[in-house]
């Protein structure tokens, strides 16, 4: 039985003597090898191999293309060669390639027999000793799939001899298991020395069936098979066995099974061999054939019978022919071969006429490789034989065109011929073959070549013969085949004059030079642009662009690129680079269009073709275009966005403020502007924004003039002159302003800020209008203020004005009555209620001041922020001014919370009295706040605070010019201006002239 695995891999061997044509690209000389290591003719990739071959002037193997059956070479003259073989010559073990070794060795632990270096993992039974776990006769594993074959009888420990394990089953009955010559499987053969041995074997099988319940009768041999999940065992129409996967692809297989006797060992009539005459075809007259291994296949003259094979319940049952076993004419020993074999990457077969019902599939003995006419005087039978080899896995060759094939050589070892006279053997193309192919189904197609001569060792002519297979392989390429069958036949099949024998291990060497691949990554390198066609084609601002492309050769040879530019309108070629200097495959080629070839305002196509010196790729597939525009666009226009923004930053006037964003529209009169670059205070501008019209935003971080620099850029990349737009960032705007100048009788104080939603103060208690400090100091008549009695007077808005979670600033001019100084009470000027506590309050406090009992014992000005809106001990952050408290004098108090820096501060700026004015210099004290701010959601209050849900700390004295700045803190300069009496009328307009942050 022959077991080995199915596959679809091609075959490889190093073949010498291959003829290739020279290519046009010059390779380097030995002196030009530079740093290349020419001592190791191998490289990982085809490109690396081709480069080394060119540098060293030698053929270099492509290491990552090697399989046990196939090797590919980059040749010194720029071509490539792939060598196929029906027999693997090396296998991979632990990442290294080692010689194929079929030797059987006992595995570590003695549980099984293993093959030293097979193509696939193989193991055989070490014998069914009681102490051992039962094991199959043989196991084949590859690609994650497994086949187990069990023998129906108990197996003794085998004797090992090279690639063969012999199990002595009974007297005269033995099982010989031989590793297949290609080491992809194994061949078990039952050998029966005599009729008595056959009877003993049958009795043992019957007893085993009775014990196991297996199917079969008489001398039927039932092999239990176990396959991996997803595989199934099936019979073929011709009587073979296949193990199929879920896609019905063959993974393991068996041809129709045969049994044969030893009739071929009986001498035929005829004399001894002569030096130049016919000899006995048993091989006795030829030393090479005399050494042939008996038993792997029937020999000429053996009596052969085909055996029925069935697959039932996981058993493959082989039924030997009882007629042959009982026939007195049978010559013993008889060999029973279910002939399991693997459908591997190659097939080969011998077919015969003369009544033979089966072919010799995958023969390995040279005695079996007969070709031509043989008669019973030499072969114990009259027949004509032909040989055929099938190579698969040739997709790479099949994808070529016939012209790519330089030449192909089919090589086979000629081991014997009828005599020393020259005879012709023809090489032909046939169709698909398998284990069931016969003489009638092996067609003869294209004749590709022939060899005339003899091949006898005694004549000195035996050895490898080369057949020209070029025509055959060109046909394969032109027909896009992925496999080819090459057959041998004697040119004269009418007599034994053309009779020859060939070994099975044929090879096929194909030399080829494919056209380079079409150029890839075709694009503009400068100015950089991808390959685009149509409306989206790039507009470039130069008449000398640089084009680039990547050029590759499937065989790894050196390549040249040729660039071309075509007028899109006329389709005339306006420039062609001609092939530029050769580089290695995979290189990037670039070429600039010379001056004077291209014109402004025109559109062009560009393309690239690649050559290896003899073949051309054809023009690059993608359509690539560009248009030329070298005219600069007009300088852009800048206009502030008038709606939907917190501020409108018009040129020439103060607007907005720190943290108050605005936007600007950038536009151009040029129709092809595609983008802009701009910079706030940065020239030349660097920040890019796309579009024919674009909007950019800006949030100031400081006050004062700001310059916006803008350039327009058209589709070609032309840059306009720079537009400079200058605007002024104003000081912060009040979100609440209560000047108390509107002494009405309705009990309210007007909010005169510029915000849309006003927050008037409602007076409570007996709060009264009084004269303000500006009128008192003589700076403006009509200035008013509120005066509070310190008992229950205050003023409040309907809702919150300050978001106490964010930054804010509050300010007021205050005057504390001298009578309140020694009361030991705190008095609050400004605050904002929460549910239970003020979120903040600005107040006078009698104690806990920077010095004992305050400055001069008078207490201190204080800014407090409660940590939480809860009853009882909410905690607070307090900052007290180190400036002395002045009573019966006007003082500007400014309190600020900076949410970004997490600091609170209080400014005090005494202005004195009309009789004793001060220099009005503000002084700041600050501290840090760790607590998380919370929103005081109640009314903004003037004249009191809130604690534990109760109003308290009513202010005794006057308050004027209350201001609120939400979301921001003020600069010292702003506070100084406020302290020195700055008000809206000083700037020639309403309140927004002081802080012009709204639109015109």
TrEMBL record:
Residues 255-286, 910-937 are annotated as: Disordered. GO terms for biological process: carbohydrate metabolic process. This is Concanavalin A-like lectin/glucanase superfamily protein.
